[in-house]
Amino acid sequence: MADYKLDIFKMLEAVDCKDYDFYDRITDEERKGFSPFTAIKWTSVVEGDQNLQHWYLAATNHYCNKHWFDLGSEHRKLQWLELCAVSPGIGKQRHGYLKQKSKEKKSEHKKQLMELFPTMKEEDVEVLSSLVTKREVDEYIKQHGN
User: Fold this and answer.
1) In degrees rounded to 5, what are phi and psi of residue 95?
2) What are the φ and ψ backbone dihedral angles of 59, each rounded to 5 degrees?
3) Banded pLDDT at 55 (limits 50, 70, 90)
4) Is the pLDDT of residue 1 over 60?
5) How far apart (Å, rounded) are the C-alpha atoms in residues 97 and 63?
6) Do residues 39 and 95 touch, judged by C-beta distance below 8 A?
7) Is the pLDDT score of 25 beyond 80?
8) Whole-number Å distance between alpha carbons of 21 and 14
9) What is the signed CA dihedral for 19, 80, 91, 47, rounded to 10 degrees?
10) 3-state SS of 35-52?
11) Global pTM value
12) Which residues contact 25 (CB under 8 A, 6 or more apart)?
């Protein structure tokens, strides 16, 4: 399977400049490399003025997040136009990438609590693990013969 590439920085510059015809000018291979999910993640984050950061984040949410993936791959041009609508049209910005929050590994302490209380929600186990020490959990296990 071939890896199709679209230069993300070229794409972001076109978004910032509200280049609505950019999608029409790129090659078929570059169109195949257009990833709407990646485009949203990069477009929504800019460096600099806090008001501008808020604008990009709120506008991306307004124009792109709602019903974005309902459009499907047959409406990539429309997705591109929505991306261009995000920009306030004040020129090229420095964009960053918003990483997905990684799930932290459960500590041995939390695993013990989840085994002891299997019906407890994970959020409740988080709270409980911050309230009791590992030594207290070990004593509880010893007292109850587990």
Assistant:
1) -100, 155
2) -65, -40
3) very high
4) no
5) 18
6) no
7) yes
8) 9
9) -160
10) CHHHHHHHHCCECCCHHH
11) 0.64
12) none
Question: What tokens does 79 get?
Answer: 């997705």
Instruction: Please list the alpha-helical segments (H only) found in 6-116.
Output: 8-16, 22-25, 28-32, 36-43, 50-60, 76-86, 108-116
Please report where in the chains the tokens 């309902």 appear, as a residue. Answer: 70
Q: At residue 10, what is the residue type?
A: K
Mention every residue, 6+ apart, whose C-beta is less than 8 A from residue 105: none
d(CA 92, CA 10): 10
Report the residue count for the chain. 146
**C-alpha dihedral sign at 72, 3, 47, 88:** negative
Return the minimum-mean-pLDDT range out of 14-23, 52-61, 111-120.
111-120
Each residue's pLDDT tens digit, 80-135: 999 999 999 899 999 987 776 656 666 787 888 888 888 888 888 888 888 888 88
Sorted by where each begins, the domain ranges of the chain are 8-86, 108-143
Rg from Cα positions in the chain: 23
